[in-house]
Amino acid sequence: MGNAGVAQSNEQRFDTLYALNAVTGKPKWQFCSKESNFIRKWYQGYFEVIVDNQENVYASNRDGSIYCINDKGDQKWKFKPSKYLSDRAIHPIISNGILYTSYGGEYIYAINTVDGSTKWQRKIKTNGIETNLYIRDNVLYVTDQNRQLHAINGLNGKDKWIYKLYTSTYDTPISSKTEETIYIKDYDGTIYFIDNINGKHKSFSAVKAEGASKLFLSNNILYTTTYDSLWAINTTNGSKKWSFPLKNGGVITQFCASSEMVYVRSPLNVYAIDNKNGGGIWSYQIKNEDGISSDPVIETNANILCIASWEGIVYGLNASTGKQLWAFSTKDFKLNEITGRPFINTICADKSRVYLTTRKGKVYCINATNGKQVWSFQTSLESTTTFKIYNDNIYVYNRAYIMLKA
Known about the structure:
Low-confidence stretches: 3-12, 36-46, 400-406
Number of strands: 36
Shape: globular
Distance between the termini: 13 Å
């Protein structure tokens, strides 16, 4: 069953995917591809672990192979692209039994999730793929390096339409389920409103939101950060609804909001902002000088907002008031280990629990109400990347694992 139940040997090092019980931290299975560089975080992105509704897990290694692993930890199939591509699969998405991913910055593959067979493949001919894939109603959206937004039929890989942007973008297209509009932001901060049926231009945002942050959509409001502010933009006419100043700047990499507030961080502060008028409700400044390393995460059952510091401390705040309720230290951080990367790799919350992984390859589960450790699990001594929680399971992928032998 998978590669579990074996003794440790120091002969070779491989990356490994673990399935843990999210409540107890007990390992259910572990899978090793027995190939080097399994699930590496290199180049223009990394392959996130995907879990489907049958608890099949999908992951990739450095040579571009994609593995489908069942709920027992056994390999169901392995996909290798027909063309030689040294890059790995980028940002896969699953829709209606098809896994879509891109390779080498120019190829898109549609893969049958039942058996790993190729449904279709195509090359983006205009200088390659610039953004992650986005899918809606069996249509894939992606931009290329020639400033073109492609709408691709997800069933056969044919272009439905192409829209030319004024400048390039790294922003992934987004849309609302209730509106027939695709939104995308370019380098200059122009936000485009494009008809998703025919690709016709509908309007621009009335303001330019210049800055590094991508777009997020919530309750028919677009959110993005400029160099010094958080902006809310109406989806109906592109006008600025409000803006909120961010001390020392701020960039959203993951969107965090409740029904009434939007949360965003700057290097030292986290802010709660009224999503109706942009008024500041509360702010919290981290106590140490190294600052905040993670985007805010909300555990809704306990109404706790969590942030992590560069020194490996997780802070639990009352999401309504900003009052600090607890602080959890991983205790295995040392100042001389600062290498330009945050000590805590990933933080997420689910069912009154907070989970995090560290550069030491350790996974922690914390009680969201009181900040007490529930369990911890040690993978390897190398860096753990991110994880996925699904149905009380937590799937952790860890690099440079020491190969296990029977």
